[in-house]
Design goal:
Oligomer: heterodimer
Number of strands of chain B: 4
Helix content of chain B: 55-70%
Radius of gyration of chain A: 24 Å
Strand content of chain A: 15-25%
Order of helices and strands of chain A: HHEEHHHEHHEEEEHEEEEH
Largest sheet of chain A: 5 strands, mixed
Distance between the termini of chain A: 42 Å
Number of helices of chain B: 5
CATH superfamily of chain B: Winged helix-like DNA-binding domain superfamily/Winged helix DNA-binding domain
Number of domains of chain A: 3
CATH topology of chain B: Arc Repressor Mutant, subunit A
CATH architecture of chain B: Orthogonal Bundle
Distance between the termini of chain B: 37 Å
Strand order of the largest sheet of chain B: 2-4-3
Number of strands of chain A: 11
Chain lengths: 342, 119
């Protein structure tokens, strides 16, 4: 816990991947889940004597109980979900250490989700303990609102706890002399922009949404909503606009202004191009992170590859990557000559 | 595609942006149906005024190379756009050369009419 207090002033090269900020963020992602699991366990033990044999675990319209399961199963599932989620998000937060922005969002998301889940499970336990029998247990909708409200509060409180994004080492050297450059006059300014598509993801999105249709017809439209919404989201996020300019490298969905991933010029040590095989290099499509590298991988083939000042790699699959990389090298040189950027 | 503008050049910035797009169309690095960045995006990207970009895009629309759709941004016109872009570049070169020789607009049009009637 020492590192929590010490902040990022440590003398051990605080910018390192597992530096204090990284540890702090992993803790932000993990600790709330562990605490929520502890609270759930404590509440369970204190009300265990009053719980029905098969407590209500699902509540339908109006908060009325309509699903039941064994006591042990309820506790086991609750603890497994909370601790499993903590471990998963902690691991993901650690792996995202080369991209501080998304890492912070993920850690905070983990904290908020743990609070919401913990709240709801506790509310369910208390409702069962209060009720005469399981079938009369009710969890009013206000509990869900409270759960999400407190999750939002905790997430908001955890945001600053994540610490400032690690800054690039001051002595970061720019691109080597041999790296490709784009000849640019002093009075010239340039920007590169291109839409990077995926052939796989729109199909996945369309199939997911299409799977929602029969579900909607047979089981009612509310139950098809998750499929339809996630299908639409996948299709929406399948295309990305990649921009290389004086602000650095920016990737946004081509059909929406956010989420936005930006790598500022100061964090780019060198830009190049490479060929990416989504399965072999990143284990799939989308926003990927593997040890030492992360990136937005929407297809195989040509990709911009940035060597960051942290030493890790950031990859975006897009056509004509060589031009973008050359421009980024030129602009990175320029940003290092004039520290305020060009 | 690469947009580059030279702030020290006497050519208006909007025309420089239009020329970038024309060139990219002509050499095939931008294809029909492709979406260009919105005027707002491109303006922040280059650090120029949005209306400057819009002037450039407007010029391309007049040349039939670009379709401007409200909310959807700028889309390269379908069809033989690369050829049309090359033709537009040729026409501009013709005009530039004629101006350099001191020809009047009427003389340039006469020149083109003569060429048209000869085929």
């Amino acid at each position: 816990m020492n590192s929590l207090v010490k902040g990022r002033s440590g003398s051990d090269g605080a910018e390192g991947p597992a530096g204090p900020v990284g540890v702090r963020r992993v803790l932000v992602a993990v600790v709330p889940s562990v605490l929520a699991a502890a609270v759930v366990l404590a509440v369970y033990l204190s009300v265990a004597g009053r719980l029905p044999d098969r407590p209500a675990t699902h509540f339908g319209a109006g908060g009325k109980a309509d699903g039941f399961s064994g006591r042990g199963a309820l506790l086991g599932t609750a603890l497994a979900v909370l601790l499993g989620m903590g471990a998963l998000l902690g691991g993901l937060t650690y792996r995202l250490r080369s991209t501080p922005g998304p890492q912070r969002a993920l850690a905070v998301l983990g904290a908020g989700t743990a609070v919401a889940l913990g709240w709801i499970i506790t509310a369910v336990l208390l409702a069962n303990a209060r009720a005469e029998e399981a079938s009369s247990a009710t969890v009013p909708g206000t509990q869900a609102a409270l759960a999400f409200g407190s999750a939002a509060l905790v997430a908001g409180a955890c945001w600053p706890l994540c610490g400032r994004d690690p800054e690039a080492p001051a002595a970061a050297s720019g691109p080597v002399a041999g790296a490709a450059r784009l000849a640019l006059g002093d009075a010239e300014t340039a920007g590169w922009s291109r839409v990077a598509g995926s052939r796989v993801l729109p199909a996945v999105g369309a199939l997911t949404a299409a799977a929602g249709l029969p579900v909607g017809w047979t089981a009612g439209w509310p139950s098809a909503l998750p499929l339809l919404v996630s299908g639409a989201l996948i299709a929406l996020l399948a295309g990305a606009r990649v921009t290389a300019d004086r602000r650095g490298l920016t990737v946004t969905p081509s059909l929406a202004p956010w989420p936005r991933v930006t790598v500022p010029l100061e964090r780019i040590a060198e830009a190049g191009r490479r060929t990416v095989d989504p399965w072999r290099d990143f284990g799939g499509w989308g926003y990927r992170a593997v040890p030492g590298a992360s990136g937005i991988v929407l297809r195989s083939g040509d990709a911009i590859s940035l060597r960051l000042t942290t030493g890790s790699e950031f990859v975006v699959t897009v056509d004509d990557a060589a031009t973008a990389a050359a421009l980024l090298n030129t602009l990175a040189d320029r940003a290092r000559r004039t520290p305020d950027g060009g | 595609m690469l947009f580059r503008v030279d702030l020290s050049s006497p050519v208006p910035l909007g025309d420089q942006i239009a020329a970038c797009v024309r060139g990219a169309l002509a050499d095939g690095s931008v294809r029909p149906g492709e979406r260009l960045p919105s005027a707002r995006e491109l303006a922040t990207s280059l650090g120029v005024n949005m209306h400057t970009v819009l002037r450039g895009y407007q010029r391309l629309r007049e040349e039939g190379l670009l379709e401007l759709r409200r909310g959807r941004g700028a889309v390269v016109t379908g069809g033989p756009t690369a050829g049309r872009a090359r033709l537009t570049i040729g026409a501009r070169r013709l005009v530039a050369e004629a101006r350099a020789l001191g020809l009047s607009d009427e003389e340039v049009l006469g020149l083109v009419r003569t060429a048209l009637s000869a085929t």
